[in-house]
Amino acid sequence: MKLILNEEEQFLRDTAKNFAEERSPITHFRSLRDNNDPILWDKDLWSEMSKLGWPGIMIPEKYGGSNFGISGICVVLQECAKTLTPSPLFATGVLGAFSIKTYGTDEQKEKYLPSIASGDLTVSLAIDESSHHNPYETELSAKKNNNNYLLSGKKVFVIDGASSDLLIVLARTSGNKGDSTGLTLFLIDSNQAGIDKVKLDMADSRNYANINFENVDVPSDNILGDPEAGGEAIDNILDIGRIAISAEMLGNSEAAFETTLDYLKQRKQFGVLIGSFQALQHRAAEMFCEIELTKSSVMAAMRAADEGSNELQRLSSLAKTVAGETLHLVSNEAIQMHGGIGVTDEYDVGFFLKRARVAEQIFGSSKFHTERYANLSGF
Amino acid sequence: MTDLSKFREETKKWLDENCPPSMRNGADPKIPTDEVWGGRNAKYKNPESKIWLDRMGEKGWTMPTVPKEYGGGGLSKEEVKVLNEEMFFIGAKQPLLSFGIWMLAPVLLEYGTEEQKKLHIPKIIKGQIRWCQGYSEPGSGSDLASLSTKADDIGDHFLVNGQKVWTSYADKADWIFALVRTGPKEPKHDGISFLLIDMATKGVSTKPITLISGKSPFCETFFDNVKVPKENLIGELNSGWTIAKKLLQHERAFISNFGLAAGMGSKRDVVSIAKKHLGEENGKIKNTFYRSEISSHKIKEHAFGLTLKRAGDEGGKASATASMFKLYGTEHNKKRHELMVAASGINGVAWDGDEFEDDDKNLTRAWLRTKGNSLEGGTSEVQLNVISKRVLGLPST
Q1: CATH number for the domain running over A125-228
Q2: What's residue B222's pLDDT?
Q3: Ranges of each domain in chain A
Q4: Whether B314 and A286 lie within 8 Å, measured CB to CB
Q5: Do B395 and A276 touch (CB under 8 A)?
Q6: Are the beta carbons of B365 and B214 closer than 8 angstroms?
Q7: Is domain A231-377 annotated with CATH 1.20.140.10?
Q8: A129 and A183 in contact (C-beta within 8 Å)?
Q9: Contacts 24+ apart (CB under 8 A), B5-14
Q10: Confidence of residue B246 (pLDDT cuts 50, 70, 90)
Q11: Contacts of B293 in chain A (CB under 8 A)
Q12: Least crowded by CB within 10 Å, which of A1, A194, A279, A357?
């Protein structure tokens, strides 16, 4: 497991970096927010990203993708996160693509993967039901009704849930809330009768929804993976998602830090650059070190995922914890070091703080993963 | 057969014939082991330690890349790799620990005269002379260049007066390489020279330093009208700071490697200590407050280990990050010891006597010793300064 990018990944990174800087600087995100855009990402931009092949990075070539794996998409997400580029790439290109390519039947793959790769189909993963991430707490029920299932219940905080075409829903087919068994994944058209999507207004101005299911009728052919084995599948899917969101959070941290460092080298007070104050220098140096640790953690985790290492779970929790704590620190320090302008809406640095706190909650906070790391490490 | 594979055959054969049984894999654990530092007064519990040192020293393989004319092995980088591999293969011990090898010899090779190289390097390589380092002074710690131990030019020799501190093993060393003031105090960097002093000279005395953790290798070293021959000056007069900086680089590289290896490979494990003293339930540390703190720490250390690996994979070219490794290596080590002490309860602060186990008492000492890690070889604050200025390019006041 080499912790350096290969040539293809470096090329992807450079492409993504140029794209993000030229096509979606932070002003792009700001205008979506200011215009109360109903889906908070831009369809034209997404079609440009799709032409570059990004939604298909994790999809096998036979289904129209490029099969660069999780590492490939992580470097793209990291660069896009530096300019806070909003897009369906995470929910569709990572969670959707990975779930279906790993657990789908041949028919399901044929049906969905090519249109995911082309950017025509967007996907959301519906997991959580309460304020804290915990997939086993699922109560949304799927009751067998002849050859079909009837789904009833509520999912919250579904990423891209306000706009996605296809939903992957974790439902309880047996057992009780809290059991890791008795869970099943379903593929459901988001426009199906009985589904009610309520768009959420979150601090980071991204696309989320709460989704109510009332006797939604789903054929058993739409089960993703083995029935009753959704608990195991979702752990694996979530670990891939955790690594990808960690890569985004790393990009967020790097950008917020760079902006702050630039500011320390420009802003004068008491007749000198504030970057000459040791009180700020040492805190900047500590942030630099934490970001270096985050880079290594994310890279080790994405390599483990691509290589099918048995360390995947532990490294995924490691990456999410470290990325979360680093971004927490950097987003707070960025505001403090910018002083007054840091807390104005006009200045971009506040966006990083808002994005940070939402991203910290996605698929488990640092606390959740510190606990999981201990469990997986045998203490 | 290529030259390199021929060399491998010869090396394998030589090691097989010359590396004593107790100096390699499969050594009888009942035979006492030595920490071999060489020198005039070296004592050996195991005579084979001395045999191994002499044989390796004779080959020049304690410094295999140094040219043969200075007593080194005269090997190429590729040959050194082969030698290391073959030594690793049979589990051969390093024959000699030496500040001469790690710090002084590289500097002599760069700045010494032909006579100085021929005089000192072979004795370093053979482990005949044990060196210590005279840098810090009571008034000059992080601000090393403010040092005031002076060497006055009085015609045919220097007369040295002053005091050094933190000289490791000064009480056991034969010679000292020291920074002394030969010029003006201002500008402070321009009046420093690099001088070699025989510890047996009249007027040199040492006194061991007891640390908060107990006995230590550190000493104070005093110079009272010590006569030092002119030919013991290395480099130009008043140009010692350049040499000192070069030597500090060798030292830092050594400390971070050594410190990290020691920290990472430590036999003490915070999890087993916590399970022992706080109890265990379903394989978990029973106390959830300690458990979460320990997990947070383990995650940090894991991430740090991955960062070391990444630096290696990148080819170690990021020398600017050496300060980060020194900083985190030592701070993590301190934190880990704090956690072990806390998890041990009153056993973690045991000092002496039969009521406590050796493991507990040793932990107390080890914990106290870690407090020096973030001071020696450049304090954590100095590392933060280096990162701020050299890596981040932040301005000076």
Answers
A1: 2.40.110.10
A2: 98
A3: 7-121, 125-228, 231-377
A4: no
A5: yes
A6: yes
A7: yes
A8: no
A9: B7/B79, B7/B82, B8/B82, B8/B86, B11/B82, B11/B83, B11/B86, B12/B86, B14/B59
A10: confident
A11: none
A12: A279
DSSP state of B141: S
Q: What is the pLDDT of residues B272-305, one digit of tens each?
A: 999 999 999 999 999 999 999 999 999 999 999 9
Q: pLDDT tens-digit profile of A264-273?
A: 999 999 999 9
**A293/B300 CB distance under 8 A:** yes
Smallest Cβ distance to A3: which of B274, B309, B396? B309
Residues of A in contact with B395 (CB under 8 A): 265, 272-273, 275-276
> Between chains, do B298 and A288 touch, taking CB under 8 Å as contact?
no
pTM of the model: 0.90
Cis previous bond, B187, omega within 30: yes
From B304's Cα to the closest Cα of chain A, the distance in A is 6
Indicate the fold that domain B3-104 takes in CATH.
Butyryl-Coa Dehydrogenase, subunit A; domain 1 (1.10.540)
Reference B387, options B321, B311, B332; nearest CA is: B321
CB contact under 8 A, A4 and B313: yes
ipTM computed for the complex: 0.95
Q: CB A377 to CB B298 under 8 A?
A: yes
- pLDDT for the residue numbered B249: 73
Provide mean pLDDT across the span A120-144.
97
CATH placement of domain B266-391: 1.20.140.10
Q: Which of A161-165, A185-189, B263-267 has the lowest mean pLDDT?
A: B263-267
**Partner residue opposite A289 with nearest CB, options B285, B327, B396:** B327
Note whether B294 contacts A4, CB cutoff 8 Å. Answer: no
Q: How far is B185 from chain A (nearest CA, A)?
A: 26
**pLDDT value for B319:** 56
Average predicted confidence (pLDDT) for chain B: 92
B340 neighbourhood in chain A, CB within 8 Å? none
Assess contact for A290 and A338: CB atoms under 8 A. no
Round to the nearest angstrom and report the end-to-end CA distance of chain A: 26
